[in-house]
Amino acid sequence: MINIKKLLLTVFIFFPLISTAKGLNIYLWEDTLSEKVITDWEQQTKVPINRFHFDNDDERSLLMLKSVQLPFDIIVLDNVSAQIFARQKTFVDLSDLKGRENINPKWNKVCGSHAIPYFWGSVGILYRKSIFGSNPPKTWNDFMNPSPNIRGHIGMIQDSVETLLPAMYSIGASPVSDNMTTLKTGYEMMTNMSKNILTYEYALSYVRSHKNRDNLFVAIAYSGDQHSLNKFFHNNDWNFITPKGAPYLWFDCMAINSNSEHKKEAKEFLTYLTQPKVAAQNALDIGGGTPNIKALKYLPENYKNNRAIFPAPERMKYAIIDRELSPHNLSIRAKIINSLITQHEAHQ
Questions:
Q1: For residue 76, which of 123, 27, 17, 15 has the smallest C-alpha distance?
Q2: Is 256 exposed, middle or buried (0-12, 13-18, 19+ CB in 10 A)?
Q3: CA-to-CA distance for 203 and 86, rounded, in angstroms?
Q4: Which helix (H) or strand (E) element contains residue 243?
Q5: Number of Cα atoms under 13 Å in the Cβ half of residue 279
Q6: Quick one: which of 58, 62, 26, 60 has its CA closest to 270?
Q7: pLDDT tens across 122-179, in order?
Q8: CA distance 308 to 122
Q9: pTM over 0.85
C-alpha cells in the first residue's frame, strides 16, 4: 500500500534542498537518463541536471495530486497521467516544441499536447536465465502457475493495471477490464498466488534496497528493466519477454511543470533530448525503446530488432495502449490492491 503521508514527509523534508538546487530538477524513474547525455548537455549549456527518483506511477501521481507545487521543473509520467494533468493546467503546452517532429506522430498523440514521448515498451516478464535455463516463462499463465522452485521468489508491482494484469491475461480478459465478475476472478487468482510472491516492490527498487536481492527470480516488469538489472549486477543473467498475446504498452512522457521558474531552460533540454543523435545515445545507454523515428538511423540493427525492446511488428497490430480508467474501475482496483498488499504483509 502506498503511504502518501510518508511520501509527502519525504518530499517536504528535502523541499528546501530541491527548490534551491541550481539547474533543472527532474523527477523520473531511476536509471532512465544517460550519464553521457547529461554530461554533454552540462558541458554545452553549463546548466546542471538534478535527478530525483520515484519507483511507482501511482506513487508519483498521488504525490502530485496532494501537492501541486512540487519543486520539479520536468516530470516523467505515464501517458494517462500526462493527459489528466494537462487538463488541469499542471503542465506547459509543448505542442510547438522544436524537435517534436522527430517523434513518431502516433506516439505524440498518446502523450498529448502538454508532454512529449520519452520512452515506450511493453509490460512483460523479467527472469533470471541461470534459474530458468532452457524453460523460461512464455505466457502469463506460466507466470501465474510457477514451478515449486520459483514459488516465493516472484516480484509483483503496485499499480492500478499491472498488479492484476497477469491474472487478467491468464483468463483471456483485457488488463483494463471494468467487468466486476472478471475483476473478482482476477482478485481471487492473485489471492491464491499471494504465498508465492516475494515482494510487491518494483524489481529495480527491490534489488537496490534489500540484502536478500538474490531471492528474486522472476518479476512483472517493463521492457528495458533487464538492461538496468544486468548493469546493476554486472552480469547478463536477466532477460525480458513480452508474453504471448496482445502486448500491453507503456509510455513515459516528459512534461514541464507550469510552476517551474526555469521553463525556458526546461524547453531547451527537451529539445536537446529530441535531437536524433542524442535520442539514439540515450536509448542505447538506457536500453529502452525510443519513440524518436529519426534516431533509428543512428542505432544498430541488433537494437532495432531486439524483441525485448520492441515487440514484433505483427504483434503491434493487436497491442493495447495504457488508457484512462473510470473512477469506479480505479476505486475497485485500489481496494483489491490494498487487500492483496495486506494479505502479503501478513505472510511476511
A1: 27
A2: buried
A3: 29
A4: none
A5: 27
A6: 26
A7: 999 999 999 999 999 999 999 999 999 999 999 999 999 999 999 999 999 999 999 9
A8: 9
A9: yes
